[in-house]
Amino acid sequence: MALTLHYHPLASFCWKALIALYENDVPFTPNPVNLGDAAERAALLKLWPIGKFPVLRDEARGETVPESSIIIEYLDRHYPGRTRFIPENSELALQTRLRDRFYDLYVHLPMQKIMVDRLRPADKRDSHGVEEARAQLKTSYRMIEQQMAAGRWAIGEAFTMADCAALPPLFYASMVEPFGDNKGLVAYLERLKARRSIARVMEEAEPYFGMVPKEDG
Ligand SMILES: N[C@@H](CCC(=O)N[C@@H](CS)C(=O)NCC(=O)O)C(=O)O
């Protein structure tokens, strides 16, 4: 098989790439990477010295593609299917990329900040940084609530890369900072979870859910 995805089934940015692969039933070989294993970590670093996953390797085209958004654009260009992740219309394409950045930078990163802080030793926790992350999430929730008035999906009526970007951080963020009375946001997460590609990603992650850090402090 030409494509190999280096990933972990619980890792939120890996979900983003998996959703895109499953959306269009693109055949690929999954390579789960245990970052705690020195040899597996070294193999990932060889592909992408930053050492973060997902990383897609395309043997047919001789390309190594890191970064979830770039993987999705790459799939859209070279392995297209019924779901187009970047709309043809250039204005909608710009909106899709903006919303993708919004979910990565202003939902995903603050959610990660809170989760990763839970794994730190008690005397190394960053309570100020966590408070800032919570404030960022609340602002982003209010923005998503307004965005949802425009349609079923992140930029309207078509499922795009922005929705691939939305599910992973919203799923985990709902565990660390409740959505409150943002009913449109609650309904959006439920719509995402009901989508076939996403239900599959979540089913595969379920055996690992016990590893999710659960408590503050
Ligand atoms: N900007 C990257 C972020 C990737 C990322 O943060 N991946 C996390 C897993 S969700 C990771 O590799 N964490 C391991 C580490 O930082 O050592 C993307 O969009 O792919």
Brief digest:
With 217 residues, the protein is of the alpha+beta class. It has helices at residues 12-23, 38-47, 68-78, 90-118, 127-147, 161-176, 183-194, 196-205, and strands spanning 3-7, 29-32, 55-58, 63-66.
Explain how this protein is built.
There is one protein chain. The protein is an alpha+beta fold. It folds into two domains: 76 residues, Glutaredoxin, CATH 3.40.30; 106 residues, Glutathione S-transferase Yfyf (Class Pi), Chain A, domain 2. 56% of the residues lie in helices and 8% in strands. It contains eight helices and four strands. Strands 2-1-3-4 form a four-stranded mixed β-sheet, with helices on one face. The structure holds glutathione. The site of glutathione (GSH) has 11 residues, from helix 1 and helix 3.
List keywords for this structure.
217 residues, alpha+beta, Glutaredoxin, Glutathione S-transferase Yfyf (Class Pi), Chain A, domain 2, four-stranded mixed sheet, 8 helices, 4 strands, 8% strand, binds glutathione
Strand count, sense and barrel status of the largest sheet are: 4 strands, mixed
What is the first-to-last residue Cα distance?
Answer: 45 Å
Percent of residues in helices comes to: 55-70%
| Cα-atom radius of gyration | 17 Å
The total beta strand count reads 4
Q: CATH topology of the largest domain, anyone?
A: Glutathione S-transferase Yfyf (Class Pi), Chain A, domain 2
Q: Based on helices, strands and strand pairing, what is the structural class?
A: alpha+beta
Number of domains: 2
Number of helical segments with 4 or more residues: 8
Architecture of the largest domain, CATH level 2?
Answer: Up-down Bundle
Placed side by side, the strands forming the largest sheet appear as 2-1-3-4
